[in-house]
Amino acid sequence: MTPETGRWMRRFRPAPDARTRLICFPHAGGSAAYFHPVAKALTPGLDVLAVQYPGRQERRQEPCIQDIPTLADRLTAEVLPLADRPMAFFGHSMGAVVAFEVARRLQARGIAPQVLFASGRRAPSCLRTETVYKEGDQALIAEVRRLGGTDVRMLEDPEIVEMILPSLRGDYRAIMTYRCPPDARIDAPVIALTGDADPHVTLDEAMRWKEHTSGPFEMHVYSGGHFFLNAHAAAVMRLITENVPAT
């Protein structure tokens, strides 16, 4: 953490000459560290920053924000000072919705990201009834195992499980209680990314992101489940560089 990035942002590698900032928004239960490989791959051509939500890692003593509008409000205030350069947003799972809501708030202030990459998440107005955040700890852990994004060895360590459960439950509550008006749109282009075997997103649900932009829309489908990114990192990095101007 530095005075420049504060508590909410992590810059893993400096990129003082980069033309564009890529701001990355993690999934439910995730942390900024998930995007360290992105910074390694794309810096210094892009200034890569990753959001660090409260309630995890060095912010684990802070209470989680358990609703998306409040989280987006707080993050908008943090992103505004970074708008001195063009920005692009990349959000995975819950992070895609958070990025969308931040983009909506910035647009109301006359600022827009150059592009929003919406990864691993159905369109904001696609609703499902999901209540696992109300269930016991074992149900939460079972859901994490089902999605496959976490090293199973970590889930066998009681101390680690105890540490991650509060942020996981808080994030699940936030995203599972989120509601979006069907006519909510941003002007920025949206590029949706999805796995063809994601239990949380059908291809139709991913395609409906096109209803939430007045700009261009693309969808890219990869083999794999909810964390298809892990197996297709090189292809995703190419997609980003093809759509975000570098130095």
From TrEMBL:
Domain of life of the native organism:
Bacteria
The signal peptide stretch is none
Q: Name one GO molecular function term.
A: hydrolase activity
**Record's keyword terms, sorted:** Hydrolase
UniProt-recorded name of the protein: Thioesterase
Recorded hits in Pfam families, A to Z, give:
Thioesterase
Q: Name one GO biological process term.
A: lipid biosynthetic process
Concerning InterPro entries, the annotation shows: AB_hydrolase_fold, TEII, TesA-like, Thioesterase
Q: Answer yes or no on keyword Hydrolase.
A: yes
For this protein, the record's Gene3D superfamilies field holds:
alpha/beta hydrolase
Could you confirm whether the keyword Hydrolase appears in this record?
yes
Record lineage = Bacteria, Bacillati, Actinomycetota, Actinomycetes, Streptosporangiales
Which SMART domains has this protein been placed in?
Answer: PKS_TE
Family (UniProt): Belongs to the thioesterase family.
Q: Which residues form a coiled coil?
A: none
Query: Which parts of the sequence belong to the Thioesterase TesA-like domain?
Result: 23-240
